[in-house]
């Protein structure tokens, strides 16, 4: 099926930013032998990354997609389709566009920072068109089974049986398989944990079935579970319902998409230095984050305070929940104890009567029904996979599970990095350690994850986001050399080290290096600012003078140590220094954003000092 009109129109209107060098269309690497054929199961964000990475390494991908379009989770459907992920019309991406992008394809500058699901799908269509991925996808084709060939120990090949929309089955032989089916397709509805549910006189359903608030008008609604879906549905439903009750067992930390100075929260808090603090001083970092969140909204006062620290579990991202609570439209309640007819009894003994609807936002089960049971062994609550990718028991490392993971950040950079490594293994460019070593690594990682995070059967996939990316990047050979960057290109080095960990950092060097990566990093704040420029507002520079004086003083001290002979010339022209700062490389950004880029200002300040008087 051709790309839908929405994607075609978007691609005509939006091209990669002019100031970012777009990578060339993919061409397969020429090899003396026939390229390996790789089956990619699913064309969501992970599957698309796998297709592109296969082509990068000279492999021949064939992607099987059971639906009629790309997008996976982000392809909205008016009616839920069994076996597929489902989203509601109001869904907004939690991650900002610069943090969720593919590493060599920045989103259009005029796209909003936190995109509506329809714009996420547009971005996928742009990616597919730019790299010519569509020809490698077979739509309306489901995978029935994936089995090792009889000579697998020697060939590493797989038998893949598919079925098209008409019911015709086909047998294929592939040299490798990449599984990209996600983990939001099988709703978990634990009715046995809710005594009396069979007596409930109202309507109940899983959040997977939720579409919109229509049908909740004037009704009393209980939402069970306070994950991202539960929070969204409580807020959405409260706009029309008589009353919404949000039930939570353990509470949750709630963060907004909007951070300091109105900038995307994940960009402000996604720096590598923050990760170092979290890794080596976790208790202190959790305390600081809790203090910051509670200064904005006291979680204890609002009945949301969880028993775990901030880093133990992925927080709820919601911009409106506190407003609904303070207005009384949403009432926070403890865990549900039982149902009694039209009443819901909570663990604190309180009762809500005449409940019309119960929505269970209770997570998802995960399974890969087409894989052999031998490949679905578990380590703790998670699948036993080396680096969350490779089953260690295979004699040939020719199967990879991609995107079956979560962290405090977007899935796209995680899945893309997994795909980059897996395809290099398939191409014979890198090798995995022996099975014994992989099992020991899995055991250690599982133990550490259970210590670090509140893992459970419903939440088994959590990893340290940047730490995991860096670990895989080290395997691929694309982890940034921070010291080298600081010495060769100080501005870029400071942006990488102190700025947000955007995916472009992993295209600066090594296999798959992209010539546009540097420019993409240095212009990322301009793309952040672009969607806000819908009304020109005069800037008042005087308000930032104290900050610049403070920064200048610190830089002045540094310069004094470096060269006392230049201080006199500098002090004779302080106005020139401030003008230099105000017209620095980030001159096109709002002053509030310049303030956030303090490391860039320091660099320009020191640069000014060291070059004055020459």
TrEMBL record:
The reply to whether Nucleotide-binding figures as a keyword in the UniProt entry is no
Asked whether the UniProt record includes Endoplasmic reticulum among its keywords, one would answer: yes
The family database entries (Pfam families) matched by this protein are listed as: FMO-like
Record region (Disordered): 1-21
**GO MF term set:** flavin adenine dinucleotide binding; N,N-dimethylaniline monooxygenase activity; NADP binding; trimethylamine monooxygenase activity
EC number(s) from the headed UniProt entry: 1.-.-.-
Report the locations given in the UniProt record: Endoplasmic reticulum membrane
Reactions accelerated catalytically: hypotaurine + NADPH + O2 + H(+) = taurine + NADP(+) + H2O; hypotaurine + NADH + O2 + H(+) = taurine + NAD(+) + H2O; trimethylamine + NADPH + O2 = trimethylamine N-oxide + NADP(+) + H2O; N,N-dimethylaniline + NADPH + O2 + H(+) = N,N-dimethylaniline N-oxide + NADP(+) + H2O
- Basic and acidic residues bias spans: 1-17
Q: What class of enzyme is it?
A: oxidoreductase
List the InterPro entries: FAD/NAD-bd_sf, Flavin_mOase, Flavin_mOase-like, Flavin_mOase_1, FMO-like
Q: Can you name a GO cellular component term?
A: endoplasmic reticulum membrane
Signal peptide feature range: none
User: What is the required cofactor set for this protein?
Assistant: FAD
Record key words, sorted: Endoplasmic reticulum, FAD, Flavoprotein, Membrane, Monooxygenase, NADP, Oxidoreductase, Transmembrane, Transmembrane helix
Membrane-related topology note? Single-pass membrane protein
Name the predominant localization. endoplasmic reticulum
Superkingdom of origin organism: Eukaryota
User: Record's family?
Assistant: Belongs to the FMO family.
This chain's function reads: Broad spectrum monooxygenase that catalyzes the oxygenation of a wide variety of nitrogen- and sulfur-containing compounds including xenobiotics. Catalyzes the S-oxygenation of hypotaurine to produce taurine, an organic osmolyte involved in cell volume regulation as well as a variety of cytoprotective and developmental processes.
Which protein is depicted?
Answer: Flavin-containing monooxygenase
Q: Report the source organism.
A: Aldrovandia affinis
């Amino acid at each position: 099926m051709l790309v839908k009109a929405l994607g075609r129109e978007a691609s005509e209107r939006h091209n990669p930013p002019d100031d970012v060098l777009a990578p060339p269309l993919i061409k397969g690497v020429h090899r003396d032998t026939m390229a390996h054929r790789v089956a990619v199961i699913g064309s969501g964000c992970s599957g698309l990354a796998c297709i592109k990475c296969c082509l990068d390494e000279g492999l021949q991908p064939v992607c099987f997609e059971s639906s009629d379009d790309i997008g996976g989770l982000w392809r909205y459907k008016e009616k839920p389709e069994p076996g597929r992920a489902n989203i509601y019309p109001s869904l907004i991406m939690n991650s900002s566009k610069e943090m969720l992008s593919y590493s060599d394809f920045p989103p259009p500058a005029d796209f909003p920072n936190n995109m509506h699901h329809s714009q996420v799908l547009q971005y996928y269509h742009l990616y597919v068109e730019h790299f010519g991925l569509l020809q490698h996808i077979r739509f309306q084709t489901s995978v029935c089974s994936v089995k090792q060939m009889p000579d697998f120990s020697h060939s590493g090949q797989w038998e893949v049986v598919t079925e098209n929309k008409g019911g015709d089955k086909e047998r294929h032989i592939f040299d490798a398989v990449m599984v990209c089916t996600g983990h939001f397709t099988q709703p978990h509805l634990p009715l046995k944990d809710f005594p009396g549910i069979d007596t409930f006189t109202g309507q109940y359903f899983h959040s997977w079935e939720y579409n919109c608030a229509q049908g909740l008008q004037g009704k009393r609604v209980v939402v069970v579970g306070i994950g991202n879906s539960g929070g969204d549905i409580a807020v959405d439903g409260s706009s029309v319902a008589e009353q919404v009750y949000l039930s939570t067992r353990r509470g949750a930390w709630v963060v907004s998409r909007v951070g300091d100075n109105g900038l995307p929260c994940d960009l402000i808090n996604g720096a590598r230095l923050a990760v170092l603090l979290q890794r080596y001083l976790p208790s202190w970092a959790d305390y600081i984050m809790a203090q910051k969140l509670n200064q904005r909204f006291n979680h204890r006062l609002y009945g949301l305070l969880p028993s775990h620290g901030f880093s133990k579990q992925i927080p709820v991202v919601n911009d409106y929940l506190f407003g609904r609570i303070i207005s009384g439209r949403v009432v926070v309640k403890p865990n549900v104890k039982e149902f009694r007819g039209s009443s819901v009894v909570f663990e604190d003994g309180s009762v809500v009567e005449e409940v019309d609807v119960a929505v269970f936002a209770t997570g998802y089960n995960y399974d890969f029904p087409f894989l052999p049971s031998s490949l679905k062994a578990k380590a703790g609550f998670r699948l036993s996979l080396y680096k969350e990718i490779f089953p260690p028991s295979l004699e040939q490392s020719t199967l990879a599970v991609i995107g079956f993971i979560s962290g405090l950040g977007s899935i796209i950079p995680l899945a893309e990095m997994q795909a980059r490594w897996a395809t290099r293994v398939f191409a014979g460019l890198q090798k995995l350690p022996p099975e014994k070593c992989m099992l020991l690594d899995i055991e250690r990682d599982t133990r550490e994850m259970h210590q670090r995070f509140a893992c459970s059967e419903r939440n088994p996939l959590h990893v340290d986001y940047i730490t995991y990316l860096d670990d895989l990047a080290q395997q691929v050979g694309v982890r940034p050399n921070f010291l080298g960057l600081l010495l060769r290109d100080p501005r870029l080095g400071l942006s990488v080290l102190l700025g947000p960990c955007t995916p472009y950092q992993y295209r600066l060097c090594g296999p798959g290096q992209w010539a546009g990566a540097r420019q993409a990093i240095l212009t990322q704040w301009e793309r952040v600012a672009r969607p806000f420029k819908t009304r020109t507002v005069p800037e008042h520079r005087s308000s930032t003078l104290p900050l610049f004086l403070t920064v200048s003083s610190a830089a002045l001290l540094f310069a004094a140590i470096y060269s006392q002979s230049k201080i006199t010339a500098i002090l004779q022209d302080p106005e020139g220094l401030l003008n230099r700062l105000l017209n620095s490389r980030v001159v096109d950004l709002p002053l509030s954003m310049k303030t956030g880029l303090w490391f860039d200002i320091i660099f320009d300040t020191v640069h000014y000092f060291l070059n004055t008087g020459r």
